[in-house]
Amino acid sequence: MSRTSFNQDWRVRPKVSQFAQLQGGADEGAPVTLPHDAILALPRSADAVSGGRAAYFPGGAFEYRKTFDVPEDWRGKRVSVEFQGVYRDAMVYVNGTFAGQRPSGYSPFTVALDPFLRYGEPNTIRVDARAHDDSRWYSGAGIYRDVTLIVTELVHLGAVRISTPDIDAERAVVEVATAVTNESVDTQTVRIRTELRGPDGAVVARDSAPLTLRAGASGLARQRLYLAAPALWSVEAPNLHLAHTVLEDIVDVLDETTTTFGIRSLQLDPTHGLRINGESVKIRGACIHSDNGPLGAATIARAEERRVELLKDAGFNAIRSSHNPLSRAMLDACDRLGMLVMDETFDTWTEGKSSFDYSLAFPEWWERDVEALVANDYNHPSVIFYSIGNEIFETGDALGSEWGRALAEKVRSLDNTRFVTNAVNPFVSVLSDVLGMMQANVSAPADGGVNAMMNVADFMGQLSAAPMVTERTEASFSVLDVAGLNYGEARYELDREQFPNRVIVGTETYPPRIAHNWRLVRENSHVLGDFTWTGWDYLGEVGVGRIRYADAPLEFEAPFPWLTAQVGDIDITGHRRPISHYREIVFGLRAQPYISVLRPENHGRQVIPGMWGWSDSIASWTWDVRSGTPIAVEVYSDADEIELLLNGRLVGRSAPGASKQFVAEFDLAYEPGELVAVGYRDGAEVGRSVLRSAEGPARLTAVADRAVLHADDTELSYITIELQDEEGTVATARDVTIRVSVEGPGVLQALASARPDTEERFDAPECTTFDGRALAIVRPTGAGQISVTVESDGLDAVVLRLEAIEVDEPAPASGVPLLARG
What we know:
Elements: E1 2-5, E2 10-14, H1 18-22, E3 30-32, E4 60-70, E5 78-83, E6 90-94, E7 97-102, E8 109-112, E9 121-131, E10 147-152, E11 155-167, E12 171-182, E13 188-197, E14 203-213, E15 218-228, E16 241-248, E17 253-261, E18 266-269, E19 273-276, E20 279-280, E21 283-288, H2 301-313, E22 318-321, H3 328-337, E23 340-344, H4 362-377, E24 383-390, H5 401-414, E25 419-424, H6 426-429, H7 431-441, H8 449-454, H9 457-464, H10 467-478, E26 482-486, H11 492-498, E27 504-509, H12 514-523, E28 527-532, E29 548-549, H13 578-586, E30 594-598, E31 607-608, E32 617-618, E33 630-636, E34 641-646, E35 649-654, E36 663-669, E37 674-681, E38 684-692, E39 699-704, E40 708-710, E41 717-724, E42 737-743, E43 746-752, E44 766-768, E45 773-780, E46 784-792, E47 795-805
Parallel strand pairs: 21-22, 21-28, 22-23, 23-24, 24-25, 25-26, 26-27, 27-28, 40-47
Antiparallel strand pairs: 1-10, 2-3, 2-4, 4-9, 5-8, 5-10, 6-7, 6-9, 11-12, 12-15, 13-14, 13-16, 16-17, 18-19, 19-20, 29-31, 30-32, 30-33, 33-36, 34-35, 34-37, 37-38, 39-41, 41-45, 42-44, 42-46, 43-45, 46-47
Helix pairs in contact: 2-3, 4-5
Keywords: Glycosidase, Hydrolase
Domain Glycoside hydrolase family 2 catalytic: 274-440
GO molecular function: hydrolase activity, hydrolyzing O-glycosyl compounds
């Protein structure tokens, strides 16, 4: 089997009908390398059809074209192309003839090319995609995930599925199920040889099995192999094995493939919760959307890997895909780095949430999309949950719950080695009843939709625990292995009594409530853990997490030019926000206190609490205000007492928890210098942290996360740009316009700050820093030296040297080298 990247040499343009082309004026389109987001380069506007939900980007219809050579020696072989994701309603044409389609924007699918090919000459492939008011968040559009060209013999391998059903300290049983298809006109007898290699590359088991297939038939070879003293996969030790599968006849190797897998066991019960390899694990989870911030929807492999790296560094051990299947690149990264996964199917079933969303295709396509999800996930040890939906209206309806049963049983028929859940929002499940209740009892913003109503936390808690919800959702929960609850923590202890066999996970929770929720997780063994909304800020649903003030308009959706939700532990550039460090302390993963300072320009303003927002603060003691200006400071800590010192003088002592758990609050007068927080427990110091004011002139700095890159379409170099003083303190109070240029075999893929309300474009060569920071992303286009120059008026320019090397050379990298990406 030949599998090669099909990401190069595409062109994209707005969709143009053949009738329109008769009138002339249609260009050939812009050259692009996949993955690519066609929406990101379009102008944003306040009157965009999807509004703030899609970050004020427009919709559109697009066509991608590629010309490729088909050699004569492909004649008599099977040729296909695998799309890992096209958003959405993809239509595929080969040499002008329809060849395949996929309504879902998130499902992998394969299109056979050989019926349409012209051998020994150039061929064309065209992919049409469109997005139009079909999502509740920014989805992007186009061929935004990888594409692979596959060439096989007529007798060839299909899927290789690996499971580890029986594990103990002495040995592990590895079951390998290999599909083989005979598309020749003769009966064929073949042999499947399988070789397993351990994490160190050594061969640990071998087996072979014969298989005879009639013409046109497919068959499954099952092999049961035994490994002594297996190296198990876990979050702490993500050991991976390789299975090398060879298909051969009497004289020739017909096909071969390599599959990565992990050996681990899963157990579930209300007493021990989730156990991995016999050890109970509490889930410290992050919901994430599919976009990559400045890259838009494009799921370039390094971008996916970096997100997993930074989320794990921030204390998370699990991610929930919200609300669609993850990319293969991210699943690979989760396997390598040790991150648990809840992979989710759909945001809608038969009842839509947007005008033209997936509900229009669900009745006809749901089974094929579930099959695609499971096929994509089966060999990934990181995947432990399949979620069959998110906040589905039908979960509160007796007949609607039949869909949940059908989905759950379909998943189990394909994979019974993992747990099935559903992210049920009690509020949404009984929304038809709630609408009347809300109008009668609660004043909610009229233009905020469901999210605005959910902002009333006390009401949400009361509703979640109401008998009406208990009765209406029981059927939907009964079909699941794990009851997923969105904003339903009021049910955790209630369900322990009412449903003693129910195991729960918080599939979506309010970020500021993590201290309360984590206590419930720790104290209740039947509650597996918590997935916060969200681990990473995202495009669309603009301003859902912003801080609002009583003297400003109270619209739920932020106005144009807002761009991001401004919710999440990590901003769109990858910088950790204060809530992230607070969460780390709540999890018990950080001993040192963390100082966060509220922006002084808002001192004294009355805050309107938002359920997804934290405080409008940053870790800085550099402010462009006069000395003596009143300023508020938060110190996050699990210590008994916090002592705050300013330039060596005692400001005060405070016990964390007076108004917020794990938070000590101080009001003081601003004075440049050094701010120190010291934590005490039982009278003894347990940790301290320091903030210093930036002094003197600022200088530009630029640091690449990797200076040596592979010269392929999976790679990126992330360059953190900061304004710093001579001691390395970030000058957060001074923002400047920066320009970035790239020379050599590379391009500036994106340039951005984390400013949530900006009209600046991600594809422009300049941007304004935010709190003294920005991010440049460089993508190699070939092998050689790449020069990146960062400059700003009045400051010395910074020049970075990157090197892109061919993939058969070793490349140092953060995390796991790209060569190991499988």
